[in-house]
User: Fold these one by one.
Assistant:
Number 1:
Amino acid sequence: MGSPKLILASASPRRRELIARLGLTPDAITAADIDESPRKGELPRDYARRMAREKAETATSSEGFVLAGDTVVAAGRRILPKAEDEAIARQCLELLSGRRHRVLSAIALRAPDGTMRERLSETVVIFKRLSREEIEAYIASGEWHGKAGGYAIQGIAEGLISRIQGSHSGVVGLPLYETRALLKAAGFDLA
């Protein structure tokens, strides 16, 4: 009998790249089709955990481990959206300019027997005070598209961040330390 399979419940190329840094290649990739709307009054930490858990639950497998994640950018109790247009990206960057915010990266691992394990990474990120020109140049890059909070730390935006405390890979989309610990705790072989 071969080793259990790893199913990545995410279509994100960033998560595939990150999981490869652990020496892993998913046996299958499934995109979770769920409603990602925050519930009324839901706090960012609870929302991130719920999203990761729901994504793992939708990609059930009796022959493998299902790994899912969700990354949430939070300014205080406010959950910032994924920027799908320039106006949203601009609003996010204006809000984050010169202040600290949190990036919550939740992961959930569903084992073949149905048990669920979860971890949460919390990282503090501080943007420099952004000038109008810097915001407009970043908007023109297009790098913000589809990104939580309107920025991608693994690109040009990294040069606009004055400090980070926590997991860089968590801000990108999959906290590697927590992911490795979760897989090991579940008995997944990480040779």
Number 2:
Amino acid sequence: MKGAALDTVDVALIEALTDNARLSMRDLAGRVGMSAPSVTERVRRLEDVGVLRGFTVDLDSKALGYGLQAIVRIKPLPGQLHKVEELIRKIPQCVECDKVTGEDCFIARLCVADIDSLDGLLDAVADRAETNTAIVKATPVPRRLPPLPVGR
């Protein structure tokens, strides 16, 4: 699939919204030197073509009482792939999960209060999958935008 054609104004708008998704169209317009109606139309176009999928909140999991994050590689037992995927979807502490190629089928990120909480969640899939868990010590590269292509 070919990516959407972005120009420098689109990139500036995306970067500004990434820094602060609550900016008003007027504030965005001031940042890129355009009128608010023009910026509103550009943002709508970026939404329509699927470049902007939504506007979000960035939460601090530690401030919410989740002192531990874990990356869990999950390898379903034979015949359990779809059931394991369903189980993972139902775990509220699973904040992200990718279906991947290779020996494991899923890589999930969990936010939990402590090791005991983590053990309880892993027990939920233990009879249907093998897991390999790593505790996150730090996140030197937090989730960020991919490089934004200009003028494709």
